[in-house]
What we know:
The complex is a heterodimer. Chain A is an all-beta fold. In chain A, 0% of the residues lie in helices and 56% in strands. Chain B is built from no helices and twelve strands.
Amino acid sequence: DTEVTQTPKHLVMGMTNKKSLKCEQHMGHRAMYWYKQKAKKPPELMFVYSYEKLSINESVPSRFSPECPNSSLLNLHLHALQPEDSALYLCASSLPGQMNTEAFFGQGTRLTVV
Amino acid sequence: AQKVTQAQTEISVVEKEDVTLDCVYETRDTTYYLFWYKQPPSGELVFLIRRNSFDEQNEISGRYSWNFQKSTSSFNFTITASQVVDSAVYFCALFKAAGNKLTFGGGTRVLVKP
């Protein structure tokens, strides 16, 4: 199984809502990532978890809250988002600290904040 | 700091033509990996090829080939005999082991017309 599964695929939320994005992989990867991608732009790294511990936070606003409850799951909790946060949110996983392996990406969650 | 530059924003070809995508990178690391990813309209980033900084041997894999020139910090990618299904955005990326960071170029949109 070489899949990274993200749910939901699409999400529309109001600025006062609380929602969560979910990501799951069963490849035994111990590094998991959240990326944000705006239209016609490259993915931008948000967070990196290595062995279930947060190792990188790229100065992401606190309205985005990541969580890694176990080695297979990664969540991104959303609260009080702004319309400019509308984007494609991509989850990825890889073997941590090893360059000779690619990151596997999910299909993403297309988020619209209204 | 790491940087990846894809000077071509969009390339349009007719089916069966060859397509070469340019990628230039900057890094102070002596050990690093370079990747090419394809992003079709569905959103998922699909791994295509990987090359480490110690191996400048250029290879061909099916219709894909790459030209890694460490002296000029370039990692170009060619699709031979393009097909309509090759239409997508292609990203060059540089991996830094410290922090498991993958830095993407701006992407090149390839449109293959029948």
